[in-house]
């Protein structure tokens, strides 16, 4: 079968039978939400100047953002099992829009940190509901559907950071966040109108009884889930740490202007627009182990080379290599979703993602401490080593 036929077949499977009206708003809203998250690294130098933050406290700010988006995923998963995905996803977009309004008016660092934590909590309400509704809508093409959704997310991360960098450089940092607020409110209205008002899983008792807790815990003792949680933690640690300081690193260590650094950071996600659908399709066709190992080879090579490369175009090449790590999410999240029974998928995903993401959220603040002591380059070499560990672990990773 030629490539054109494959694309047509995948498109019919993803968009046919009215599925486009679910996939489109889910994907676009996700793009704006994680685009919001990735504006922070671009604006971090201005936030440091205005609020007197060091590299360590700047890293702590990003850690709080990631920590909020991690801790809320378990309760989000439980609520997704009890209520509708629509309710959780609309609440997410409205919460983030409201917290952003507080950030741009923050009179002190304390308010900035608290509002940033609220953004993280708002972000945590969306991912599990997004996965469960796509799992129900695309039982045969979950990898492809998640890959497309995450690619649209990368499109948001591609456009938002450089736009915020330009607006911040030309005017003031608050303008980097301002356009996101009406966009998120519009997404909330669209999700409410487009998504079905039905519970994903009705077979399980709504109350968190002792019986239900035993049931969930028995599923979480699955060796495949424990193994995958470890792998997910390592990857999230690398990903959050890299993204938190890459624009700052390019500006302070590689001599690029802040606007160019923001543009290169956006280019990182532009490559991900291509990588994620390919990674999701690879998962559907060749399984998790091979697709995950292949997708991580480029990031290892890029991170090992980064400290020794200077100049705009060589850094573009390094950014392209590292960007293939963005395909990992389409593989790991598809695998995790298919490991859980239907009646506790949201709770199970929430438990795994909360555990992995909470531990991984320590990455930015730890990296900030290392960078502040003059070990920026060495920090990226350590991240490359962690990715090598993940590749080695895939040898023992069970398939579904």
Automatic annotation (TrEMBL):
Cited InterPro entries: MFS (IPR011701), MFS_dom (IPR020846), MFS_Efflux_Transporters (IPR050189), MFS_trans_sf (IPR036259)
Bilayer topology term: Multi-pass membrane protein
Keyword Transmembrane helix found: yes
Domain of life: Archaea
One Pfam family here: MFS_1
Annotated coiled-coil segments of the chain: none
UniProt keyword list: Cell membrane, Membrane, Transmembrane, Transmembrane helix
GO cellular component entries: plasma membrane
Main location: membrane
Major facilitator superfamily (MFS) profile domain sequence ranges: 1-400
Protein localization: Cell membrane
Protein name: Nitrate/nitrite transporter
């Amino acid at each position: 079968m030629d490539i054109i036929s494959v694309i047509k077949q995948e498109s019919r499977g993803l968009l046919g039978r009215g599925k486009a009206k679910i996939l489109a708003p889910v994907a676009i809203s996700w793009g704006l939400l994680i685009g919001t998250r990735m504006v922070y690294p671009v604006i971090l130098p201005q936030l440091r100047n205005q609020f007197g933050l060091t590299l360590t406290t700047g890293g702590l700010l990003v850690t709080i953002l990631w920590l909020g988006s991690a801790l809320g995923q378990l309760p989000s998963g439980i609520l997704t099992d009890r209520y509708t995905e629509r309710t959780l996803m609309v609440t997410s977009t409205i919460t983030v829009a409201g917290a952003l309004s507080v950030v741009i008016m923050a009179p002190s660092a304390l308010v900035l940190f608290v509002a940033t934590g609220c953004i993280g909590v708002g972000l945590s309400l969306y991912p599990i509901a997004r996965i469960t509704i796509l799992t129900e809508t695309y039982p045969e093409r979950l990898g492809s559907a998640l890959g497309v959704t995450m690619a649209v997310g990368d499109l948001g991360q591609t456009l938002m950071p450089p736009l915020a960098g330009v607006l911040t450089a030309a005017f003031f940092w608050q303008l980097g966040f301002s356009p996101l607020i009406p966009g998120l409110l519009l997404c909330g209205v669209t999700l409410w109108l487009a998504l079905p008002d039905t519970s994903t899983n009705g077979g399980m008792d709504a109350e968190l009884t002792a019986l239900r807790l035993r049931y969930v815990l028995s599923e979480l003792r699955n060796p495949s889930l424990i193994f995958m949680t470890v792998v997910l933690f390592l990857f999230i640690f690398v990903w959050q740490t890299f993204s938190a300081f890459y624009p700052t690193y390019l500006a302070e260590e590689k001599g690029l202007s802040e606007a160019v650094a923001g543009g290169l950071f956006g280019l990182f996600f532009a490559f991900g627009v291509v990588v994620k659908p390919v990674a999701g399709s690879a998962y559907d066709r060749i399984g998790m182990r091979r697709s995950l190992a292949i997708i991580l080879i480029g990031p290892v090579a890029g991170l090992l080379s980064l400290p020794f490369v200077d100049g705009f175009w060589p850094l573009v090449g390094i950014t392209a290599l590292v960007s293939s790590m963005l395909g990992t999410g389409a593989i790991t999240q598809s695998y995790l979703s298919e490991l859980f029974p239907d009646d506790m998928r949201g709770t199970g995903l929430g438990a795994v993602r909360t555990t992995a993401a909470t531990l991984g959220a320590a990455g930015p603040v730890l990296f900030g401490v290392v960078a502040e002591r003059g070990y920026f380059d060495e920090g990226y070499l350590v991240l490359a080593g962690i990715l090598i560990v993940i590749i080695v672990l895939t040898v023992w990773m069970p398939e579904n």
